[in-house]
Design a protein that fits this description.
By secondary structure, the chain is of the alpha/beta class. It folds into three domains: 7-185, NAD(P)-binding Rossmann-like Domain (Rossmann fold), CATH 3.40.50; 193-278, N-(1-d-carboxylethyl)-l-norvaline Dehydrogenase, domain 2, CATH 1.10.1040.50; 304-413, Transcription Regulator spoIIAA (2-Layer Sandwich), CATH 3.30.750.190. It has helices spanning 15-26, 40-57, 63-72, 96-109, 125-129, 163-175, 191-194, 196-207, 213-222, 230-237, 239-252, 263-270, 315-323, 357-364, 394-406, 422-438, 444-454, 461-468, 470-484, 493-500, and strands spanning 7-11, 30-34, 73-75, 87-90, 115-118, 138-143, 152-157, 179-184, 304-308, 327-330, 341-344, 347-351, 369-372, 383-388, 410-413. The longest helix has 18 residues, at 40-57. The structure holds 1,4-dihydronicotinamide adenine dinucleotide.
């Protein structure tokens, strides 16, 4: 098989370097691994050999494949040994001067055609290449941890990166069974930038008393269909590591409020509550299986609901209500609200548009309002989240709960915070993704692919926004900005343009 790069040098035998070396060797490349620490490269290769042999013993790979991969891995005694490498990937300490010095040395050792790739997650590719004789040879190949398992590689173009160099990096990714997404060197590239609201919004709900940690995680998982809630994910990543990324992106964007870190997180890091690795973060490990709070008391199951809406966002829920044998009286023309509204018993249930239930009741002159958080799929969701307004009666809450009980859907009550939990999160993810596209960081398909593969989102944020409706996404942001006075909710120009033109991202 002919490969784009036959001989690959990897520098830095830590978590990422060892993983990248394994990936390249498994694809058939001869790999030389080097580390400034004496013996580190050989030790990393030995550990990789153990991993491969264990996989072979379990039947996940053949013994021949394991042996062949191990035979292709070697430890380089010094940098001079990289003279015959077609590609060098550096995964050393995250420090600009160290990376520049290293690439300068490599230019004196490697052929002029050798591609110099950096696995940096936060340093500008343009800055790393500055001052080199051949800056056009420098490209970002940003792998995700653990490199052998994560499918995504962001192939990052610096200002001077030659397109042909990026194309070769992409060809190698394909041979290495990775999905490459091309992007421009900007702070956080795609994933570390677009994912910021997933943390930021959960912290704001927590700090505003909207819900506690396990409830926010539960709603993001069960209602939003995210694989992990924000806080369990933070415990896994490490609160310190995540805070460092947040601060680096925030500072790089001149402290734009979109990326503002959370004081709660800062305080926890200061206290050494770092997550799983320190035994305690938002949860204490080993974690006790949490029992979600039972749905609140339900009233009598309804026999009829009124559906008042101009939007079709709640149509799948209406179908479910009909399938449960409950009569639906559709009065679309009477909708005083816009985003989707139901009446059951005494309760008026409004799909959240970024306003609180109390605010909707006041502004629309309605009584007994509850807001309903956006579910990823109302046709199948097993849980919904509701918030009641200040003046909403207990019996209205019971009527709303009774409707969902009749559908076999659990109800989680959350505080009356704007945008609830899922709606504000998906609107902000879409907003950030839209801005990344607007600024030419990557195209819409690239952003969506990166978010699905890099952070395992169930759906790309832009495809999700198209499905939820751009008018609703925009309304959530507009109302949250008005409610909080926080500029972080300002709407991306591209999101607005697509909405006004009835367009879509996908
Ligand atoms: P690590 O600390 O596990 O490994 C770094 C290795 O580089 C160490 O073994 C160290 O001895 C060696 N090293 C440091 N300076 C060196 C030099 N001048 N020459 C040769 N070897 C040197 O670090 P990790 O986590 O593997 O990160 C490496 C790079 O990958 C960083 O740029 C980091 O930002 C990036 N990255 C890290 C990810 C992660 O989740 N850990 C994910 C994606 C990128």
């Amino acid at each position: 098989m002919s490969l784009t790069f036959n001989t690959v040098g990897v520098i830095g035998a830590g978590t990422m370097g060892a993983g990248i070396a394994q990936v390249a060797a498994q694809a058939g490349c001869r790999v030389k691994l080097f580390d400034a620490r004496e013996g580190a490269a050989a030790a990393a290769n030995a550990k990789t050999a153990d991993t491969l042999n264990a996989l072979a013993a379990k039947g996940k790979i053949t013994a021949e494949a394991a042996a062949a991969t191990i035979s292709r891995l070697s430890a380089a005694p010094d940098l001079a040994d990289f003279h015959d490498c077609d590609l060098v990937v550096e995964a050393i300490v995250e420090n600009l001067d160290a990376k520049r010095t290293l690439f300068k040395s490599l230019e004196g050792i490697c052929a002029p055609t050798t591609v110099l790739a950096t696995n940096t997650s936060s340093i500008s590719i343009t800055a790393i290449a500055a001052g080199l004789a051949r800056p056009e040879n420098v490209v970002g190949m940003h792998f995700f941890n653990p490199a052998p398992l994560m499918a995504l590689v962001e192939v990052v173009m610096g200002q001077q990166t030659a397109p042909a160099v990026a194309e070769r990096a992409e060809a190698a990714c394909a041979e290495w069974k990775k999905t490459a997404v091309r992007c421009k060197s900007t702070p956080g590239f795609i994933v570390n930038r677009v994912a910021r609201p997933y943390y930021g919004e959960a912290f704001r709900v927590l700090e505003a008393g909207g819900a506690d940690v396990p409830t926010i995680d539960l709603v993001l998982r069960d209602v939003g269909a995210f694989k992990l809630g924000t806080f369990e994910l933070l415990d896994l990543i490490g609160l310190d590591v995540n805070l460092m990324v947040t601060k680096s992106v925030w500072n790089a964007y001149y402290q734009d409020s979109r990326f503002r870190p959370s004081l709660t997180q800062e305080e926890m890091v200061a206290g050494g509550l770092l997550g799983r690795k320190s035994g305690r973060g938002f949860y204490t490990y080993p974690v006790e299986p949490a029992t979600p709070a039972p749905s609140p008391a339900a009233g009598t199951a309804p026999t009829m609901v009124q559906y008042l809406t101009e939007s079709d966002a709640l149509d799948p829920l209406i179908e479910r209500i009909k399938a449960a044998g409950i009569k639906v009286q559709s009065r679309k023309e009477d909708d005083p609200y816009g985003a989707g509204m139901l009446r059951t018993g005494n309760a008026t249930i409004c799909l959240t548009d970024g306003r609180t239930a109390t605010q909707i009741a006041f502004e629309e002159d309605l009584t007994n309002v509850l807001t309903l958080d956006l579910a990823r799929d109302f046709a199948t969701t097993k849980r919904v989240a509701l918030a009641k307004g200040e003046d909403t009666t207990t019996s209205a809450v019971a009527d709303a709960v009774a409707l969902f009980k009749a559908l076999g859907v659990e109800v989680t009550m959350v505080g009356d915070v704007p945008g609830m939990i899922v709606a504000r999160t998906v609107a902000m993810l879409a907003n950030e993704a839209a801005d990344a596209v607007l600024q030419g960081v990557a195209d819409a398909a690239g952003v969506d692919t990166a978010m699905k593969l890099g952070v395992s989102y169930p759906e790309g944020p832009l495809a999700a926004a198209d499905r939820y409706g751009l008018t609703l996404m925009n309304a959530v942001l507009v109302n949250m900005q008005a409610h909080t006075g926080d500029d972080r909710y300002r709407q991306s120009l591209l999101l607005q343009r697509k909405m006004w033109s009835d367009g879509s991202f996908t």
